Amino acid sequence: MARPKQFDEEKALDAAMRAFWRAGYDGTSTEALCEATGLGRSSIYNTFSSKHDLFQRALRRYMADKNSDTFAVLDGPGSAKDKIRALLWRIVDAPDDDPLGCLVVNATVELGTRDGEVARLLRTDQDRRRAALVTAITAGQRAGDLDTRRDPTDLANFVIATIGGMRVAARGGATRDTLEAIATVALDCL
Questions:
Q1: Alpha-carbon torsion (101, 104, 105, 107), positive or negative
Q2: Which of 7, 26, 61, 92 could anchor a disulfide with 179, C-beta 3.0 to 4.6 Å?
Q3: How confident is the model over 179-190, as a mean pLDDT?
Q4: 74 alpha-carbon distance from chain centroid
């Protein structure tokens, strides 16, 4: 008879997510996952089947958490420009003691061209975020809040690229002033 689990799977998944977020997929060894989660190797593999499975589950969890915040902003009150400003300023105002960047950006750079499963997961995530941005941008253009000479999808891709670039810059040590300047220029382009 199998023994019941003696740990909180959700806490273990959160700890693994932070380990992958900090060091990347290749840079996170099984030993590092054991240390981060407090679990033994057999518990990790019995629960998550493989490092790759654990990574995908951690990435999905990260996406769900970040996207729920993003969608709440985009579906909330305010003009389209205010909503985009709020998304950009979440990066500007991120705590200095948590310079991990973005797990989605990190996974895209590390695995996006060599891991088909992760690439599909990343594409699906980007498509969802793009669609939400296109909806907000289209509404903003109708309201006269945003430039109507540009295609909403092009603007959504620009916002996604700006956010990704800001997260990379933040992970590389960019100052708050630098991130604020990037966000301000991006808003001026809308």
A1: positive
A2: 92
A3: 97
A4: 16
- Distance (Å, whole) CA 45 – CA 16: 13
| pLDDT classification of 1: cutoffs 50, 70, 90 | very low
Mean pLDDT of the chain: 92
Which bin fits 78, alpha (ψ -120 to 50), beta or left (φ > 0)? Answer: left
pLDDT of 10-45, one tens digit each? 898 999 999 999 999 999 999 999 999 988 888 888
User: CA-to-CA distance for 107 and 151, rounded, in angstroms?
Assistant: 28
Contact status, residue 46 vs residue 29, Cβ threshold 8 Å: no
CA distance 178 to 175: 5
CA count, 13 A, side-chain hemisphere, 106: 26
Instruction: Give the residue carrying structure tokens 């960047």.
Output: 101
Which of 117, 126, 113 is closest to 161 using CA atoms? 126
Residues 6+ away with beta carbon under 8 Å from 117? 52, 56
Report the predicted TM-score, pTM, of the whole model to 2 decimal places. Answer: 0.88
